[in-house]
């Protein structure tokens, strides 16, 4: 097959979606030609080298599209002008090639309207989340997103896949999608952690890693850490990642004792940090599945999430068995962290059970399932 993958993020940029499409491409390209159509975000990648607009290796070609307008805004949303420009450039590039399948991330939604014009019943939308009424929190701009999400879900001549059963059910129950929706989970690559030299867990090392965005709950974690620090002077908080709230996170943590912010950490170093942490805390309001949780579990590091109707991970695990699910408030989150600092048996239990949980989601198995789903979609149209 000749496959186009349209997504905002791809390596070397850091994030859950970036990891998803990088890993799926890695396995699909063993047998198929894969073109990545993505957004040019930064000139330098975490290794300090320049990022090229066009790149190729093996059966993969990467096209990073520059937009003149600022794309991601300080509040974590996208600029309409930037999204329109990205959408138009995606369409122009898709016109130049005859793809068997166009696999497009749901984000930024508007681009689907453009891509549909050049797709020949070969467009597959990869749904990470369904926001529904969550959009209403953002006023008029959010209401536009609410309507656009519904229009996208009802698009004729497209297929849908979902990143989790949670997202699949929301597609069906909230957006009314009647078609078959295969689930193509996020995953982990156990070999990545197996290849890391032995690293001992650092007692008191609390880690957040991921996108610096409003819904990730970094401010909640910082408030909880202040409480933890009162009774656990050895505790240290590491916040690793990047995103639209970079400046805000740096300002928020400036002057706080034992709080360390690291931006754009290279992948190999990040894996070492995850493996050495005593606990990973990601108090995210929204997660379609949650790659960061899985990666922490694969590293044998206990995980703390928060209870939220929009967080798939907190609905997938049993509290106190595979992970701890705290309430979305500083006192509850601090209590969960303190528990893992003082209950060695629970720490060992979550470390062990987490590895087992993560082992169900390997990129190799998931990629084989995606390949089969895409081939079935093609066969249905022949």
Please give a structural write-up:
The structure is a single chain. This protein is of the alpha/beta class. It has two domains: 2-187 and 362-381, Rossmann fold; 190-358, Rossmann fold (3-Layer(aba) Sandwich), CATH 3.40.50. 41% of the residues lie in helices and 17% in strands. The protein is built from 14 helices and 13 strands. 43% of the residues are buried. The mean pLDDT is 93.
Low-confidence residue ranges: none
Number of strands: 13
Q: How much is the radius of gyration in Å? A: 20 Å
Q: Please tell me the total number of domains.
A: 2
Assign a percent range to the helix content. 40-55%
Mean pLDDT, to the nearest integer, reads: 93
Structural class: alpha/beta
Question: CATH homologous superfamily of the largest domain?
Answer: Glycogen Phosphorylase B
How far is it from the N-terminal to the C-terminal residue, by CA? 14 Å
By CATH reckoning, the class of the largest domain would read: Alpha Beta
CATH topology term of the largest domain: Rossmann fold
What series of H and E elements makes up the topology? EHEEEHEHEHEHHEHEHEHEHEHEHHH
Strand order in the sheet with the most strands? 3-4-2-1-5-6-7
Largest sheet: 7 strands, mixed
| Overall form | globular
Beta content comes to 15-25%
From the 3D coordinates, which CATH architecture of the largest domain would you assign? 3-Layer(aba) Sandwich
What is the count of DSSP helices, taking H or I runs of 4+ residues? 14
């Amino acid at each position: 097959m000749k496959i186009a993958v349209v997504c905002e993020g791809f390596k070397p940029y850091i994030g859950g979606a970036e990891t998803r499409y990088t890993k799926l491409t890695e396995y699909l390209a063993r047998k198929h030609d894969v073109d990545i159509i993505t957004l040019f975000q930064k000139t330098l990648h975490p290794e300090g080298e320049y990022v090229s607009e066009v790149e190729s290796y093996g059966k993969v070609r990467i096209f990073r599209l520059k937009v003149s307008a600022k794309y991601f805004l300080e509040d974590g949303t996208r600029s309409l002008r930037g999204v329109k420009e990205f959408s138009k450039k995606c369409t122009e590039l898709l016109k130049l090639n005859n793809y068997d399948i166009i696999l497009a991330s749901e984000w930024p939604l508007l681009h689907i309207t453009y891509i549909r014009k050049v797709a020949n019943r070969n467009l597959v939308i990869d749904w990470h989340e369904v926001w529904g009424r969550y959009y209403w929190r953002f006023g008029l701009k959010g209401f536009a997103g609410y309507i656009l999400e519904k229009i996208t879900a009802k698009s004729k001549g497209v297929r849908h896949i979902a990143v989790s059963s949670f997202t699949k059910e929301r597609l069906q129950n909230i957006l009314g999608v009647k078609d078959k929706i295969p689930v193509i989970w996020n995953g982990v690559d156990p070999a990545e952690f197996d290849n890391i030299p032995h690293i001992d867990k650092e007692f008191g090392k609390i880690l957040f890693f991921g996108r610096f965005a409003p819904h990730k709950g970094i401010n909640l974690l910082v408030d909880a850490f202040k409480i933890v620090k009162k009774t656990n002077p050895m505790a240290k908080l590491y916040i690793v990642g990047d995103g639209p709230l970079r400046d805000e996170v740096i300002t928020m943590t400036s002057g706080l004792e034992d709080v360390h912010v690291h931006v754009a950490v290279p992948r190999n170093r990040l894996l070492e940090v995850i493996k050495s942490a005593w606990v990973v805390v990601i108090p995210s309001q929204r997660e379609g599945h949650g790659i960061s949780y899985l990666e922490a579990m694969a590293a044998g590091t206990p995980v703390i999430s928060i209870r939220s109707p929009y967080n798939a991970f907190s609905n997938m695990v049993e509290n106190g068995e595979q992970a701890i699910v705290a309430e979305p408030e500083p006192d509850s989150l601090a209590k969960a962290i303190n528990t893992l600092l003082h209950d060695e048996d629970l720490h060992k239990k979550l470390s062990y059970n987490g590895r087992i949980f993560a082992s169900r989601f390997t990129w190799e198995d998931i990629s084989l399932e995606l390949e089969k789903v895409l081939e079935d979609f093609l066969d249905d149209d022949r």
